[in-house]
Every structure is written in structure tokens, then in C-alpha cells.
Amino acid sequence: MIIPEGQRTVYFLKQTVRKLFSVFKKTEAFISTKHPELGTTWLPEDIHFITTQEVKDTYPKLRPKERENEIAKRHNAVFIMQIGDVLKSGLKHAMDALPIMTTGS
Known about the structure:
Strand order of the largest sheet: 1-2
Number of strands: 2
Oligomer: single chain
């Protein structure tokens, strides 16, 4: 998806991610009806948005991947924004840390 320059806002990003997440939720519901042995659904109602700086502030002693794993465990579905931006420390966020949408379990 190419987002036109005038629409590149946090609001538009979040709306787009929520639309994608709703597809995941519908897929999960469909699979649950076809395979009840899997149990109930596991995704939360909504996806949690957080910036790389907020994750670092929450888990200051962990490395980038460890921070991302912890925030995913805490919220079950996370979209991390501002990957690659410069943090308050003046250091650039680790470029190998990709945005994740995952179940934390």
C-alpha cells in the first residue's frame, strides 16, 4: 500500500492497521468455528499501539527485541510505531527491530 503524502498521519496509520487487524479477528473467528477443538479465540478486541520510545521507557534495561517481546506478552496484539527513529537518548532505534503484530503467548 502506498499512502499519499497528504494522508501520512498517525491517525491514518492506526485506522489502516485496525482494518488489517479486523481481518485477523475475522479469520480467527472463522477458524474457531471450523476447529472448535482449538478452543476460544486468543486475539484481544483491539490492537495496542505504542512507539519505540514508549517501549524503551517501559523496559529501559532490555534490548530492542526483548522489549518488543515483553510488550507483546503484555498486550497480546501490538503495533510498534516509529521503528528506526531517533530515541531521546540520541541513538537510533535498532533497524533490525520490525513492527510486530503477534499474540504474546
